[in-house]
Design goal:
This protein has six helices and eleven strands. It is an alpha/beta fold and 215 residues long. It has a single domain, classed as Dihydrofolate Reductase, subunit A, CATH 3.40.430.10. The relative contact order is 0.24.
Length: 215
């Protein structure tokens, strides 16, 4: 059965999935890069950016499993790129260069229609202006029998949580305080009671927390 997943999404101790003042120079907001330092210290994280070395520990094992069984990804427009409003003549194709690390269809939530963008390595960005349910329906169709990953950012994950559509969520709690930005757990409504923590494992860098929909 296909599941809707969140994997390796990093949040600060004060609950932020991105820092304040996100822009081209600070795509994760001011201080938001601190949330992901643990990833690029791992062997799998360094391989993702074409680098050698890295740790082979608990953090590496969690990050290495990020794509296991995933057949499609959903993300918000902010995670795709820094542009806001109508697309216009801009030719932005995402933060990840010519060969993004997804290698399957990625469905980008937007309020403005935009033609699909095919990238090297099998990634195609497809833009959905019909809301989270329409994006999920398209992603499920593309994934077939594989799972769908809701990659972020915090606002997108929060929308799917509020609707009770996330089945399994793996978070990395990073020991930093950002003091502002975009919160993950905010205004979830009654759906928050449908989830429970089923696992937490600590490394020297982060605490990995697994949250599942209650049976």
């Amino acid at each position: 059965m296909t599941n809707v997943l969140v994997r390796n999404f990093s949040i600060s101790l004060d609950g932020y999935g991105a820092g304040p003042s996100q822009d081209v120079e600070h795509p994760l907001g001011i201080g938001g890069n601190l949330l992901h330092e643990w990833i690029f210290a791992t062997r799998s994280g360094r391989q993702m950016i074409g680098a050698d070395g890295g740790t082979e520990d608990i953090d590496d094992a969690f990050f290495a499993a990020r794509d296991s069984g995933v057949g499609a990804t959903i993300m918000g427009r902010n995670m795709f790129g820094p542009l806001r409003g109508p697309w216009g003549e801009n030719e932005w194709s995402g933060w990840w260069g010519e060969e993004p690390p997804f290698h399957h269809s990625v469905f980008v939530l937007t309020h403005y229609p935009q033609p699909s963008i095919e990238m090297r390595g099998g990634t195609t960005f497809r833009f959905i202006d019909g809301g989270i349910e329409a994006a999920l329906e398209a992603a499920l169709d593309a994934a077939g029998e594989r799972d769908v990953l809701v990659a972020g950012g915090a606002s997108t994950i929060r929308q799917y949580l509020r609707a009770g559509l996330i089945d399994d969520m793996r978070l990395a709690m990073v020991p930093v305080l950002l003091g502002g930005g975009e919160r993950l757990f905010e205004d979830l409504g009654p759906s928050a009671a449908d989830y429970e923590c089923v696992e937490h494992v600590c490394s020297p860098s982060v605490t990995h927390v697994r949250i599942q929909r209650s049976k």
